[in-house]
Design a protein that fits this description.
Radius of gyration: 24 Å
Number of helices: 16
Number of domains: 2
CATH architecture of the largest domain: 3-Layer(aba) Sandwich
Length: 486
């Protein structure tokens, strides 16, 4: 594979973009990685029309055929791994450690997983029911079955932090269920998604089943959301954008799957393993520069161990060198853009102005180029401060003290978000009890590890719906009930 296509992918064909092209910039070097197509709103609508035209054929294809096609996509992702990883790294600014282990390989695993899931029965057996005669129908023993049916055309709007991985988490289960898709990647790093379209083409995915439109503005995504040919929106991104999508999609009763913002609370009790807690919380800095919605960005610490944990976190930050993501020694790479770096810095300054103290970091790293922010720890934070309420999406952790369990739960639940929280305690029974009180879609007890068979999604403003594992098949299907006389 050579340079990624500079055209969009519609109905199995490569099409010149109506709006020309725009530059994609490497966040570490500020150099141009390549140029991406600027599709028009009309072309986004054409992509949706192509997906609708392809739907009946793909939905009626045998599960074995869909499985085989998804398997070929996984095989080709593996084949082109060495070509994809440098592109993913350059576009996202991820460290090579993250780019090589958490980007392409995870996408491969997801396509392989849903190639297997495609073979599963879509029927849910139900016991027959004895029904008395009514004016509507004679009585009798009535049989029934519930069938998972594809939703139709799914618009997959993906984020900039893990473009290929997130794409795979949407597209693979959607295709496995018999849906067709239009992919609209984030404007910051779309080239790897265009490369994915080349893989789709080579894999022999039927024309129109997968379409890709790219653009630097909001027009293409808005056109997909508004298109009468789109039946479902699958979006990962900010709560603000998700709210606008929800308002527009709701007018036409489109299905929605929304993975939105997070402000993860890590509750650390007095009996916790503080080294384990510090390591988990420090992952906010060490993993993709904090650009992850599940990060434990709020450390809620029992007052009796507050100072000890802060000391450990300061020490942890010292082992997170910032710099060139191509160097093996680098732990913290750049943020995706200058505007995102500036937003993080402005939020930190706002927190300091409100009375928070910078325990570590807080200053822009002295590097000649790149959109870098230093691992930052803010102490003396109170629940009402903006730094305790708003998502940074960067390498910043805030520390809040609490005195008892009820206060910890109140603080943890005291934001509009509810995506992923954590509880650290030597008493796992208490940790479980506290977990059940948290208004959060996911809770980790003494770990920040994920179990990818669990349903993933958020409470409150963190999202709508659940995916991952077998739950993703439910997310991309409608339930149809079929009954008959016994």
């Amino acid at each position: 594979m050579g340079v990624p296509s500079s055209r969009i992918y519609l109905a199995g064909e490569w099409v010149e973009p109506a709006g020309g092209h725009y530059d994609v910039v490497n966040p570490a070097t500020e150099e141009v990685v390549g140029t991406a197509p600027e599709a028009s709103a009309q072309q986004a609508e054409q992509a949706a029309t192509a997906a609708k035209a392809a739907f009946e054929g793909w939905a009626s294809a045998s599960p074995a055929h869909r499985s085989e096609v998804l398997g070929r996509v996984a095989d080709l992702l593996t084949k082109y791994n060495d070509d994809l990883v440098p592109l993913v790294q350059a576009e996202t600014g991820a460290t090579m450690r993250v780019a090589s282990t958490m980007q392409v390989p995870v996408a491969v695993e997801r396509f392989s997983r849903y190639a297997r899931h495609a073979l599963e029965s879509s029927l849910v057996a139900l016991p027959p029911q004895a029904i008395d005669a009514t004016p509507l129908a004679p009585g009798g023993l009535v049989g029934a079955v519930a069938r998972r049916a594809p939703v139709g055309v799914v618009a997959c709007i993906t984020p900039y932090n893990f473009p290929l991985v997130n794409l795979a988490g949407k597209v693979a289960p959607a295709l496995a269920m018999g849906n067709t898709v239009v992919i609209k990647p984030a404007p910051q790093d779309p080239l790897q998604v265009l490369r994915f379209a080349e893989i789709v083409h080579e894999a022999g995915v039927p024309a129109g089943v997968v379409n890709v439109v790219t653009g630097s503005g909001v027009d293409t995504g808005a056109a997909l959301v508004a298109s009468p040919d789109v039946d479902m929106i699958s979006f990962t991104g900010s709560t603000a954008v998700g709210r606008r999508i929800g308002e527009a999609a709701g007018r036409d009763m489109k299905r929605q799957l929304m993975e939105l913002g997070g402000k993860g609370a890590a509750i650390v009790f007095e009996d916790a393993d503080l080294d384990r807690a510090a390591s988990g919380i420090g992952s906010t800095w060490a993993f993709h520069s904090g650009q992850i919605c599940t990060a434990p960005t709020r450390a809620l610490v029992h007052r009796s161990v507050h100072d000890q944990l802060v000391e450990k976190l300061v020490g942890y930050a010292g082992f997170c060198p910032v710099g060139d993501p191509l160097l093996a020694s680098t732990v913290v790479g750049p943020l995706i853009s200058a505007s995102q770096r500036d937003r993080v810095e402005a939020l930190v300054a706002e927190g300091v102005g409100a009375g928070a103290t910078v325990a570590v970091g807080g200053q822009r790293p002295e590097l000649d180029r790149g959109f870098y922010a230093a691992p930052t720890l803010l102490t003396g934070v109170t629940p009402d401060m903006s730094v305790a309420q708003e998502e940074f999406f960067g390498p910043v952790v805030v520390v809040l003290a609490f005195d008892d369990e009820d206060e910890a739960v109140q603080i943890a639940n005291g934001t509009p978000f509810g995506l992923y929280d954590y509880v650290f305690s030597g008493d796992t029974a208490r940790a479980y009890r506290v977990a059940t009180r948290l208004r959060s879609g996911n809770v980790g007890i003494n770990t920040v590890a994920r179990n990818h068979e669990t349903p993933f999604g958020g409470f409150k403003h963190s999202g709508v719906g659940r995916d991952c594992g077998a739950f993703a098949l439910q997310a991309y299907s409608e339930l149809q009930s079929i009954v008959w006389p016994g």
